[in-house]
Amino acid sequence: MILPLGLALTLASGIAPAASRWATEQERHILKKGQPLAGEALAFANDLAITRPEEIRVLEVKSVPLPAPRPLVKLAARWGLPVFEPAGMALGRGIYLLNSNSRLLRHELVHVAQYQRLGGIEPFLRRYLTECLIHGYLGSPLEAEARAKEIE
Q1: Direct distance between the N- and C-terminal alpha carbons of the chain, in angstroms, rounded to an integer
Q2: What's the burial of 92, exposed, middle or buried (CB within 10 Å: 0-12/13-18/19+)?
Q3: Residue 151 in contact with residue 107, Cβ under 8 Å?
Q4: In the chain, where the domains are located
Q5: What is the pTM assigned to this prediction?
Q6: Rg for the chain (alpha carbons), in Å?
Q7: Minimal CA–CA distance to 129: which of 9, 1, 12?
Q8: For 56, phi and psi rounded to 5 degrees?
Q9: Which ranges of 34-140 does DSSP label H, i.e. alpha helix?
C-alpha cells in the first residue's frame, strides 16, 4: 500500500524511535559477535567512502531478527513497510547475512554508507521508512541506490 506523504511522514516519525532502539541493540550485538570485512568487501566499502570500514562487522545467522512480533510484521507488510524475512540487513555498522553472498553484502554495505551519509540510525530509518511507505519497498530511492551499486 502506498500512502500519502503526510500519513507516511507521521507513521515513519512514530515508528522510527522504537525501530532505532531495536536497531541500535542489534548493531551492538553484531559488532560484538561479527567478523570484520576482508578482501573485496573491504575494498568496496572504501570505494563507497565509508569512514572506518575496518569497524564494520558481519554476522552470519540462520534467520535475520525482525523488529516486531509476527502479527505486527504482517500488518506492517500490508502497509508497505519493509518488514519481511530478509536475507540480509544493515543496522548502522553491523550487517546480518544469511550466507556469505558477496552481492548481498555489497547491497548491505551501500546501506551502511547511507546510514553514515544521513547521520546515523534514526535519521536513516526515518527516511527509509518514509520512502517505503510512499514508494513501496522496491520503489524506495534508498533501496534503488543499493540495488544499483551492488552490481557496479
Answers
A1: 31
A2: buried
A3: no
A4: 5-150
A5: 0.86
A6: 15
A7: 12
A8: -70, 145
A9: 39-47, 70-78, 102-118, 121-135
Instruction: Give the burial string for 35-45 (b: 16+ CB within 10 Å, else e).
Output: eebeeebbebb
| Cβ–Cβ under 8 Å, residues 128 and 82 | yes
88-91 and 35-36 beta bridge pairing: unpaired
What distance in Å separates the CA atoms of residue 127 and residue 16, rounded to the nearest whole number? 9
Classify the phi-psi angles of 50: left when phi > 0, otherwise alpha if psi is within -120 to 50, otherwise beta.
beta
Residue given cell 534503488 in the structure block: 144
Three-class SS state of 137: coil
Please name the amino acid found at residue 54: E
pLDDT tens-digit readout, 91-115:
999 999 988 778 899 999 999 999 9
Lowest mean pLDDT among 4-8, 61-65, 136-140: 4-8
Lookup result for grid cell 534467520: 63
- To which residue does cell 540480509 refer? 88
**Which amino acid does the sequence have at 91?**
L
